[in-house]
Amino acid sequence: MLRSAELPTPDPREVIGQSRPYILGPFDKLSIDVFGIEELSKREVQTDASGRISFPLAGVVEAGGKTPGELERLLEDKLRAAHIRDPQVTVNLKETVSQVVTVDGEVKEPGLYPVVGNMTLIRTVATAKGLSDMASRNRVVVFRTVDGQKYAALYDLNAIRHGAYPDPAIYPNDVVIVGESKSRQLFQMAATGAAALSPVILLLQAATR
């Protein structure tokens, strides 16, 4: 294991939709409305494994890799080409499975949660309905894989809340574990002697190339 001063940010090529705002991906569920055209409004569609959707008059549309706003403009162009006069399209994200964070351990509702907007560690824990009564606030671990290397970072929620260091960003595919005994064992040696107000970041496994 190697120590690092900061948990690295995933490369955009590795994590679909890590950028802000939300980038559409495979199997996302969308609600699409075309203003003033009832037949094309309140339509729920789901992107396929390649991130594509099918929409009346527009045909098959590449939605993956686009923001909802970019998809709105693309659909407007295609509907305009289909002789719809001045189409006004609204695309809303209803459900995502392509860009999620896993939250486990001592939170009230462990599970998979969408990463939408500027997600941080504090916001992620809040999304899982907060800490359980048994949670260890100074033993919160974030696991992340970047460029084939596995990292883990140990954070103290109390220190973050008191401004000792910034609330770290959370990205799709991260795993957050709160107060988990296995996490404490993993960091038992690394955290010994570490300043209470400093995060501990470890490189767990180097990439094999």
Quick description:
The chain has 209 residues and is an alpha+beta fold.
Structure characterization notes:
There is one protein chain. With 209 residues, the protein is α+β, with helices and mostly antiparallel strands. It contains four helices and twelve strands, in the order βββββαβββαββαβαβ. It has helices at residues 68-81, 121-127, 157-161, 181-191; strands at residues 2-4, 29-34, 43-46, 52-55, 59-62, 89-95, 100-105, 111-114, 140-146, 149-155, 175-178, 200-205. The strands form three sheets. A seven-stranded mixed β-sheet has the order 1-12-10-9-11-7-8, with helices on both faces. β7 (100-105) and β8 form a beta hairpin. It starts with a strand and ends with a strand. The mean pLDDT is 82.
Report the radius of gyration as a whole number of Å: 21 Å
How is the quaternary structure best described? Answer: single chain
Tell the overall outline.
elongated
**Percent range for β-strand residues:** 25-35%
Helix content: 10-25%
Low-confidence stretches: none
Major β-sheet annotation:
7 strands, mixed
Strand line-up of the largest beta sheet? 1-12-10-9-11-7-8
What's the count of strands? 12
Mean of all residue-level pLDDT scores: 82
